[in-house]
Amino acid sequence: MKSIEQKALFIMFGGTGDLAQRKLYPALFNLYKRGYLKENFAVIGTARRPWTDDYYHEIIENAIDGLTDDTAQAKAFASHFYYQSHNVNDTSHYQTLKDLAEKLDAKYALEGNRIYYLAMSPRFFGTICDHLKSQGILTDHGYNRVIVEKPFGHDYASAKALNDEIAQTFPEHDVFRIDHYLGKEMVQNILSVRFANSMFNAMWNNRYISNIQITLSEALGVEERAGYYETAGALRDMVQNHILQIVTLLTMNAPVSYSAEDIAREKINALKSLKVYSPKEVKENFVRGQYGASKDQIAYRDEDQVAKDSLTETFVAGKLEVNNMDFAGVPIYIRTGKRMKTKATRIDVVFKQMPTVVFDDKLKHDVLTINIDPNPGISMQLNMKKPGQGFEIETANIGYQLTDEQKAGVPEAYERLILNALRGETLNFARWDELSYSWKFLDAIREAWDAENLSDDAFPNYVCGTMGPKAADKLLAKDGNHWEYEG
Ligand code: NAD
C-alpha cells in the first residue's frame, strides 16, 4: 500500500502570530495524528521575537491543547519544531535560515521538499520571495511551494504587483493562495450536487432556477481586527474571495474532468461572464451598511481603533449577473456582514414556481439549501400534500445532514488545504486568473462607492443582531423576491 506520509520542511514566516497559533499548528497536529506527517517532517518558525526552541515548544503544546490527552504525543510532535529569530528585511538572517533548513533536511530526510508559509502581512511577501531565491534557500531537488494568506492585494493593481513579485521566485503551479472557504466540506460538495446528480444537473440553469441567494452572516463584530478592517471593509474582506469563489462554483459550466486544470478553466470562464457594473448599476445593485448599537452591543464606530466618523462597510448585499448561457437572467443575490442575527454560511437555490394549473393555490418555490456552516448538509423545500382528509398543499423539507461522527471525521479547512499543498494539489486554491477577474469586478464597485461621497450620517444603518439594512431586503423585493433565510 502506498504510504500516506508526506515528507517536508515547513518554514513558517509569522510563526509567532495569531494565525499560526490558532489555525496552522492545530492543522499540522491533526495531519500528524492522522499519519500524514510522521517522523519525516520539521517546522522552522520564524518571526522577530527572540524565542528559544524550548519556549516555542511550549507555544506549540498550548496551541494543540484540547486536540489530544496524550502528553507524550504532543511533546513528540512539538520536538519537530525549531525557532529562528529572523527579520525578513535583513538579508544576513536568510543565511542562518538556510543553514538550519539544510541541517533539518538532512536530520529528518526531507528530500529537499519545502513549504514556505507566508503567515504575515502581504507587504513582506515580495521581500521574502526575493530572498528565498537570491539567498539560495530554494532547493534544487524536491519541491518548493509557497502558501500565501489573504488578503491578496486590496485592488487589482496591488494584487497584480504582489503576484508579479511572487512570480519572480515561484511559478504559478507552486503558489497556493489560501481561501479557506474552498477547504470547507460543503463548499467542495457543490460540485458533487451539480455534477453527480442527473436531477440537479438537468435543472441547474435559467429554465428552472429563479434566483440564487448566498449568505455569509457573522454574529461577531469586528473584534480585535479593526485596524485591518478599517482599511478593508466587508466588500474586500468577504466578497472578493469567499463569496465570489462560491458564485463561481455555482455557475461554472461542467468541467471536462475533476482535475485542477479543467475545473480552473471553467471557474475562470464563469468569472469572465460576471458582469462588471457601471457606477449607475452599482447604485442599483449594491447595498452597503454599518452596524449601530443595540441594547447589548456597541456600534462599529465605538469599537477600538475605529474612527468615530468611519464610513467602512460592515455589511454588503448585492445582485450579481453571470452572463453565460445557463445563468443569464438568474439574479444571484449575495450578502455578508458582521453583527448580524446569526452566524451562518448558506446557499439557497430557489427554483421557479409551478404555474397555477392543477392546484388553485399559489405554490411556494422549491428551494435547495446548501448549509455550509454551522450544520453542514443539504435540504430541499418541496410542496407536498398536507396529510389527512381533503387536499391542501404545504411545504415540507427533506434533508441530508452530516452525523456527529461524520462531522468529527471532516478535516478543518486549514488541515485539508495544507495536505493539498503537501501533495501539490492546486484544485482548492485561487489561481491568479481567478483573482484578477474578481478584483476587476470588485474595483468597479469600490470606485463607484468612493466617488459617491457618502455623508457621515449615512451610517450606521442597521442595528446589531439584525439581518442588515432594509435596503438589502428591497434589493430582492424590486424583483418580486425575498431572502429565504431570515436568520
Ligand atoms: P499577527 O500580527 O498575529 O502575526 C504577524 C507575524 O509576523 C508575527 O509572527 C510577527 O512577529 C511577524 N512579523 C512582523 N514583522 C516581521 C518582520 N519584519 N520580520 C519577521 N517577522 C515579522 O498576524 P496574523 O493574524 O497571524 O495574520 C498573518 C497573516 O494571515 C496576515 O496576512 C493576515 O491578513 C492573514 N490572515 C489571518 C487570519 C487570522 O485569523 N489571524 C485570518 C485570515 C488571514
TrEMBL record:
Q: What does the UniProt keyword field contain?
A: Carbohydrate metabolism, Glucose metabolism, NADP, Oxidoreductase
Q: In which pathway does it act?
A: Carbohydrate degradation; pentose phosphate pathway; D-ribulose 5-phosphate from D-glucose 6-phosphate (oxidative stage): step 1/3
Q: What are the residue boundaries of the Glucose-6-phosphate dehydrogenase C-terminal domain, all occurrences included?
A: 192-484
Q: What catalytic activity is recorded? A: D-glucose 6-phosphate + NADP(+) = 6-phospho-D-glucono-1,5-lactone + NADPH + H(+)
Q: Which domain of life does the UniProt lineage start with?
A: Bacteria
Instruction: Outline the extent of the Glucose-6-phosphate dehydrogenase NAD-binding domain.
Output: 11-189
Q: Which residues form a coiled coil?
A: none
Query: What PROSITE patterns does the record tag this protein with?
Result: G6P_DEHYDROGENASE
Cite the binding residues for NADP(+): 48, 150
Q: So where's the catalytic machinery, residue-wise?
A: 242 (proton acceptor)
Q: Which residues bind substrate?
A: 180, 184, 218, 237, 338, 343
Q: What class of enzyme is it?
A: oxidoreductase
Name the InterPro entries on file. G6P_DH, G6P_DH_AS, G6P_DH_C, G6P_DH_NAD-bd, NAD(P)-bd_dom_sf
Annotated EC: 1.1.1.49
Keyword set includes Endoplasmic reticulum:
no
TM helices/strands, residue ranges = none
Describe the task this protein carries out.
Catalyzes the oxidation of glucose 6-phosphate to 6-phosphogluconolactone.
The family classification in the record reads: Belongs to the glucose-6-phosphate dehydrogenase family.
Q: What is this protein called?
A: Glucose-6-phosphate 1-dehydrogenase
Q: Which species is this UniProt entry from?
A: Ligilactobacillus ruminis
